[in-house]
Amino acid sequence: MERVGSGSGSCLEQREPTTGPPLARSACCEHHPPPKGAWTTFFSSRTPHISGFTIYDESSTWEKEQRKMSLMDITKMFSMLQPREDEEDNGESEELNRAVLEDDYRTLDQLLSQDRYKKFINRKSGWGVPSTPLRLAATKGHVRSVEVLLAHGAEVDSLDVKAQTPLFMAVSNGHRECVKVLLEAGASPAGSVYNNCSPLLIAARDGDVDILRQLLDHGAETNVQARLPEWAANSAACSGPLYLAAVYGHLECFKLLLLYGADPDYNCTEERVIAQIKEPKTLLETCLRHGCRSKFIELLIDFGANVHLPDITVDKTAPHSEGLELLLQARAHPKSLMSQSRLAMRRLLKQTGHPHALGELSIPVALVNYLQHQP
User: Fold this and answer.
1) Is the C or the N end of the chain the one with fewer CB within 10 Å?
2) 371 in a domain, yes or no?
3) Would the pLDDT of 341 be above 60?
4) Residue 39: domain span
5) Residue of 118, 120, 54 whose CA lies nearest to 87
6) Is the pTM of this model over 0.85?
């Protein structure tokens, strides 16, 4: 088994020595391998692969496809990620980083009150992955240092050499208070367009409901959207937050994403993205094949998943699967009027851009609970 690629936000691939299409993990699963059986086919053997910022291909189609890549975009991307060398650093960056590492926010505040230090507030430095003081503070979870840096004008969405924002690092390390402060300071809940992963995918994978809710409340997109050129679209639509929450068994995150408007079929509403996948797998099919609890199947059906999409046969699922029984029942019996009314209400709210605003309606509490799938 060979591992290809590294770096947070990159696609990690494991290939068997035999021929055939490779298998890959979800784009953000570098440090947390998926549970047994939770593999998703990401790339066909004829598709260019992306690992961090290294682009490679196993076929001759690369020469044809590379012409479609915008050289301007690549140049701009790398120029944004390079450390600035336009000012002489006489140890100021090191002192700032030391104060951040020790969470000595008072000293940090005093240093940044001096011009000779403040001009290095957004400078990338340090061993390993050069980063700004804000990125370092967010990674360590030092919320007071984060607040001081932001108060002195630190760039909230500054990128490190992996195109990771401070918010991305705070989410990756589960620092909820830092996430809150960064979002309130205007950090993009989507992370960087130059990174193949996003804070929402990380939160869904890790099962952190509080962080996931914060991101969603600040406008994070619940459905997969294309971040890559068409020639590299691969099966990203089958690796959205709903898929991750399902295969990792995070039921609360799964339900929260659906409440905020995630598509229950493919977790993707861009038809051109889905069309580029040879054999797209619906969430229903994925949950059944991976033996997810029946509650996942029940939620998908209740939230309007097309029960006729998955090509599921009994011999391909676990014997006596409760989830399969639920699917077969849903195919045989039409939804109740109450269930259809709930779907219609949620569909209307989704069209207005507020799929989670049911609690604000002036209707009886019992009805609100039903609309929000509460007992």
Assistant:
1) C
2) no
3) yes
4) 2-81
5) 120
6) no
